Each structure stands twice: as C-alpha cells, then as structure tokens.
Amino acid sequence: MLPFGKQIVKLRIPILIVSILLLIPSAIGYFNTRVNYDILYYLPDDIETMQGQDILLNDFGKGAYAMFVAKGFSDPDAARLKSQIEQVDHVAEVIWYDTIADDSIPQAILPEQLYDVFHSDDSTLMAIFFDDSTSADGTMEAIEDIRSIAGEQCFLSSMSAIVTDTRDLVNQELALYVIIAVVLSCIVLAVTMDSWMAPVLFMTNIGIAIIYNLGSNVMKGEISFITMSLAAVLQLGVTMDYSIFLWNCYKEQRTRYDTKEEAMAHAIAMTVTSVAGSSLTTIAGFLALCFMTFTLGMDLGVVMAKGVVFGVIGCVTILPSLMLTFDRAIQKTAHRPITINGDKFARFVIKHHKVFLVVILLLWIPAIIGYRNMDVYYKLDTSLPSYLNSVQANKVLSEEFDMSTVHMILASDDLSTKDVKNMLSEMNEVDGVEFALATDSLIGYNVPKEFLPDQLTGKLSANGRQLMLISSAYPVASDEVNAQIDTLQAIMKKYDSSAMLIGEAPCTRDLITITDRDFQMVSIASIGAIFIIILLVLHSVSLPVILVLVIELAIYINMGISYYTGTTLPFIASIVIGTIQLGATVDYAILMTNRYQLERTLGKDKCESATVALSTSLPSVITSALGFFAATIGVGIYSDVDLIGALCLLMARGALISMAIVLLLLPTLYVVFDGLIIKTSWGMKLSKTPSHQS
Predict the structure, then answer these.
(1) Interhelix angle for 571-601 vs 504-538, to 10°?
(2) Among the listed residues 342, 344, 204, the one whose alpha carbon sits nearest the alpha carbon of residue 623
(3) What's the rounded Cα separation, in Å, for the pair 249 and 56?
(4) What is the secondary structure of 299-350 as a DSSP string?
(5) Can you name the residues that pair with 408 across neighbouring β-strands?
C-alpha cells in the first residue's frame, strides 16, 4: 500500500478541494432525504395487519386515524367544531354522533346507547380518519391544523399525533446531539493526545465523512428517525479509532524518516492494512442487523455500515491531507498529554490472573440472569416525555372514556345482519372491550341496509368490505390487550374467515412477535460473521471463540444491569445494542491479541507475552473506549426521546464495560489457554531462541 500512500501525500491539496466540493451534493442529498418517524412502518408488508392497513387506505380512502376528545363543548358547538375539522386538508372522515343521528334517520329507531358512545360527562368523542398513512407529511400537517383549530380544551390521541410530536422533538434536539458528542469527544482526545489541534482535525475529517454518509441516504429515499438521530453519534464513536491509529503511526514514522511526507506515506500504508481488517468486524456487526424481518434493522445497519466505509476512506485520504496541510499548527499547539503507564497495571493483572479469572467468570451467572430477565417496552409513547400533547391526549382518552386504543375489523360486507349482531355481541362481552360498533349496531339491527342513505353506509363500507370499530380499555403492548386481540380474532374468524383485525395494538403485537424472533437471528448472524472475520484475521480457531465470549460477557453484563436497576428498556435496545457493542468493541480485543501472537512467536513466555500485549495496548484501548463513551454519554443524558437516550446510555456504559472486560479478562485467558491457542493457530510457531524485542 506504500504507492497508494505516496499518491495521497502527493495529491493532498486536490484531495482537500474535492472533499470540500463533495459536501455540496452531500448537503443537498441530506436535505432531500425524508425521515420516517413511524416505527410500525417497518413491519414486513406480508403480515395481515399491514395488508389490512393497505386495504383501509386503498379501498376506504382512510389511512391514519385518531380519537379526538373535546372537553366542555355543547352538542351544537361540537357539531361546528366537527365541520371545521372536516375542512382540514387530508381529513377523510369525522365520525361523531351526528354522523349517524342525522335527519335521514328517525331518532326513534336509533339505539339508546349510541349517544353514550360519543359522550362522557362534559367530554365529546370523535373518530377522525385521514386520507394518508400514519407518518405521511400530509397526515402530520393535518394533525397540526386540527390542534390549532381545536385549542387547549381538545386532545388528539393517535399514532399520528405521537409521530408528529416525535418529529418535532427530534428535530429540536438533533443538532445538539452532534454538538454534545463532538465537544465531549474533543475533550477526551485533547487530554490524551499531544496536540490541541489534532482533535480539531479529527472532528473535521469525521464530520466530512458523516455528511457524506447522511447525504448518500438520499439513494434510499427515506430513513428512520432513529437512524438519523444515531448515525452521526455512532459514526463518530466507531470510526474515531481509525484516526487515532493513523496519528500514532504517523508519529512513529516521523522518528524514522526525514520528511513528513515520507513518514505520512508509510503511515497511510500501515493504516490501510490494519484498519481494513478492524473495520470489517464493525461493518459485519452492523450488517447483521439486515437479517431482521423488522426492516428498521436494515435501515440502521446499511446506513451505519456505509458510515464505517466513509470513515475508513476519510481516514486514509482526507485526514492525512489535513494533517500535512496543518502540520505547523499541530506543532505549535503541542502539549504534554496525560500518559498512561500500562506496565505496572499489566504485571498486576497477569500476576493475579487466577483471581481475575474466578471473579469475572462468576459474573456470568448474574449477567445471564439479568440479561434474560430484563424488561422491555413496546408502547411507543412510553419513550416520550409526559408534557407532549399526544401523551396527554392518551391520558385524557383513558380517563374520560376508559379507552386506551381502538381496533378496527375489516369484514365482508356480505355478512348478514344477524351474524354481525351476534359477532359484535360476543365481542362486547370480551374483557376490556368498551364497545364494538358497525353500521348495523349504530342505526339498529331492525333497519335493512338498503333503506340507509349511501352517505351513511359509504362511511363504513367499501369494495365489498365493512369497517367495524372496537374500543379497548387495555393499553397497547400490554399482556391484557394481546390476549384480548387473540380472543377477538377467534370470534371474528368464526363468522368471517377473511376478516382482518388491524390498528395500533394488533400491529404492536406483531412487532413483539417479530422482534423476539429477530433478536435471536441478529445475535447468531453477528456472532457468526465476526467469528469468521476474526478467524481469517488471526488465523486461529480458538481465538475467535475466546474473543467473542469475552465481548458477549460484556454485553450480558451491560444489558443485565438494567434488570438489577429496575430499568425498562425500549424493545429496539435488546436487538441492536448487542450487535453494536460486539462490532464496535471487538477491535480492542483484536488489537491486543495481535500483539500477544507477535510476542509469543518472538519467543517470550505466555505470561510475558500477555503482559506486553496488555501494557502496549492499554493506552489505545482506553482512549478508544473513552472516545466512544464520550460520543454517546452526553446524548444519552440530554435526549428527551427515550428510544434515543436509552440506546446512547447503553452504548456508553457498554464501552466502559467492554474496556474493563477486555483489559482484565482477555490477558488472563491468553495465559490459561496458551497451549490451546498455539495448537489451533496457523503460523504461531514459537522461536527456540528467546527474544527480548518488544
């Protein structure tokens, strides 16, 4: 790779010019990439709940829906408010008492309980349907318009309202995520490196790579808000190692060569060789997320794998060019860094390796217990602060109407009035069901459908299907509502085998089932991929097993802590954290293991080789782990969106735990399994003559 390094040095000015120019299309791409704030959107298209959502939108012209509560409104005022809401763009239908009880239906034949469905004390309930999907821009605009019309006495409860509030909150915080991560990372780099200018150049290089990555997402059309929120922070954290490696190589080569250009060419060559293998493990970890049926994993995995590639390219092209261009500034801002003498620490660890082995192995039991019993939540508004309008609306809906969610049934329009009556009667008896309504039940079972005006029947019927509404008192993602859904489906299928039960709660139940399966799949895929890469990099069968077990213990401890602290995590954390922590921190283990293999082949005994490997790797491991910690901890503390904050806190804690486990346990395992490692590793032929070369 030396000729490549020489070309980079030679073309450093054109490289900087081109890299700056490429920011223009990247920025354009970034601003033209749509962000999706609806997590349920990423459920697979072939499941019944998602197919039902498509039918509702395509056949009925109704996509998203919301339950609207107006407090202190008289019936005439509520009717006027309903008329105003109906005029809002993208509102397809507003169903209220007067929708059924209009002049075309004699009041005498209307069911007595109809009024009670839409009224509670001084509160009025309306069902609003929109003509687009939950997270569509038009739907979110309609949510904002309805809120502006309704005022403070009205509350809009829906998935679309949650999505709208999530969008506003994330957009408000997003820039600060990056600022916090950059500032804290710069502090770590500034005190551990010997130049105040170096962190600035590092952040410039990584920032350019992040913009390239985010800008190239325009080819995907849209990305999830989780991916958008985490991409910059994660890319900063996982690619900082590469910059540190180039910096250390460059300083080392400066002592060997007369000119900075020649030293940099050799440093680039060394970095390309080393970083290529290291980055593959990180890329493999992210790409393992693509095995998820829940396609949010693919969204995050592809973007982050792409970010690592951009990070590597920037590290061996843009960063060297910056370092050479600003070499004088680097020299002028030189200072004495905080140095870490790893020799005493390493000798202490190896001397007491049996104690560390016993202590850390004992951690497996509580770690596994905590890992398997940690609590996760799937109810999306749980991740949002209580002051948001959508969260307050859900509370009001529950308090005023004992309603937490609404299910919808798409059934055949050929069902007889008798079957509809019997089906809804059975459903009304199911625990937690507040009411079950269809066209027949709304106007009474004694009125033939053919006598009803088209304006009324068209609201709940289309293309051979009829729409029924089921009100549930049970919150989304609870065990009670999932059991209720099973019971409702059994009743529904008894009368109509083609009927579909859809809505937020059924979708969330599918989310629970799918992500449980994805969790196992992603774990197997990430471990398998990284195992193979380590095997090829280290030329050993036993070392991949040892390294993966070490990092898996760190992951179990990290996730298990949540159980012992009583912390409930967002469901996505249990899937992606293990993969990210494995892919991002296995680099520490590979770095140390490479040095251990080298020292053993040079003739040192197992204890001395482990000591040298630990002492020489200690500064890099600590700097890298602290950098990843700094990039994530601030965002975790600051963010009001728990989906983002909890993930960042877990990553920050995971970086420190992985660092500790790698530094304390891995050298111990070198000593304990030295014979096995040598026998199962290609090329580890021990020198007969001891060498003192380090």
Answers:
(1) 0
(2) 342
(3) 60
(4) HHHHHHHHHHHHHHHHHHTHHHHHHHHTHHHHHHTB-------HHHHHHHHH
(5) 469, 502
Tell me the C-alpha distance between 500 and 53, whole Å: 10
Q: Say whether 338 sits in a helix, a strand or coil.
A: coil
Residue reference for tokens 């996509």: 63
Cα separation values, 95 from 92, 209, 516, Å: 10, 50, 37
| 234 phi/psi in degrees, rounded to 5 | -65, -45
Residue in 406, 513, 361, 400 with CA at minimum distance from that of residue 48: 513
Residue 449, pLDDT score: 53
Tell me, rounded to whole angstroms, the distance of Cα 146 from its chain centroid.
30
The DSSP string of 48-71 is HHHHHHHHHHHHHS---EEEEEEE
Q: Which helix (DSSP H) or strand (DSSP E) does residue 358 occupy?
A: helix 353-362
Q: State in Å, rounded, how far the first CA of the chain is from the last one.
A: 25
Q: What is the pLDDT of residue 404?
A: 87
Structure tokens at 289: 């997320």
Q: How many CB atoms lie within 10 A of CB 319?
A: 26
Q: What is the dihedral of CA 62, 67, 72, 73, to 10 degrees?
A: 10
State how far the Cα of 320 lies from the Cα of 16, in Å rounded to an integer: 10
Q: What is the pLDDT of residues 232-243, one digit of tens each?
A: 998 998 888 889
Residue 543 CB: number of other CB atoms within 10 A? 26
How many other CB atoms are there within 10 angstroms of residue 580's CB atom? 31
CA distances from 65 to 39, 105, 143, 456, 668 (A): 16, 26, 10, 18, 59
If you ran DSSP here, which 8-state letter would residue 686 be given?
A: P
Phi, psi torsion values for 435, nearest 5 degrees = -160, 155
Q: What phi and psi, each to the nearest 5 degrees, are found at residue 32?
A: -105, 10
**Residue where the block lists tokens 């491991």:** 621
d(CA 56, CA 499): 12
Among 592, 87, 126, 33, residue whose Cα is nearest residue 400: 126
Q: How large is the greatest C-alpha to C-alpha distance in the chain, in angstroms?
A: 106
Angle of helix 296-316 relative to helix 197-216, nearest 10 degrees, comes to 140
Range list of β-strands (E), 140-289: 154-157, 222-224
Q: Can you read off the two tokens belonging to residue 590?
A: 């590979």
Cβ 506 vs Cβ 49: under 8 Å: yes
Give alpha helix (H) positions in 374-416.
389-401
Q: What is residue 691's predicted lDDT score, i.e. its pLDDT? A: 43
> Taking each helix axis from N to C terminus, what angle separates 642-664 and 159-192, rounded to the nearest 10 degrees?
40
**Other CB atoms closer than 10 Å to residue 632's CB: what's the count?**
30
**Looking at the chain, how many residues does it have?**
694
Q: E strands along 348-455, which residues?
A: 376-377, 405-412, 433-437
CB distance 90 to 183 below 8 Å: no
The alpha carbon of residue 439 and the mean position of all alpha carbons in its chain are separated, in whole angstroms, by: 41
- Calculate the alpha carbon distances from 511 to 39, 212, 471 in Å: 9, 32, 21
Torsion of CA 647, 653, 656, 659, to 10 degrees: -60
Neighbours of 105 (CB within 10 A): 18
Q: What amino acid is encoded at 542 in this protein?
A: S
Helix, strand and coil in the chain, % to nearest 5: 70, 10, 20
What does the alpha-carbon distance between residue 643 and residue 293 come to, in Å, rounded to a whole number?
A: 20
Q: Which residues of the chain have pLDDT under 70?
A: 100-115, 440-459, 685-694
Spatial CB neighbours of 574, under 8 Å, sequence gap ≥ 6? 374, 376, 519, 559
Positive or negative, the Cα torsion across 156, 157, 163, 165?
A: positive
Cα→Cα distances 424→101, 115, 211, 375, 633, Å: 20, 18, 55, 35, 51
Cα 694 from Cα 685, distance rounded (Å)? 17
**Using CA of residue 298, residue 303, residue 306, residue 311, what is the dihedral sign?**
negative
pLDDT score, position 559: 93
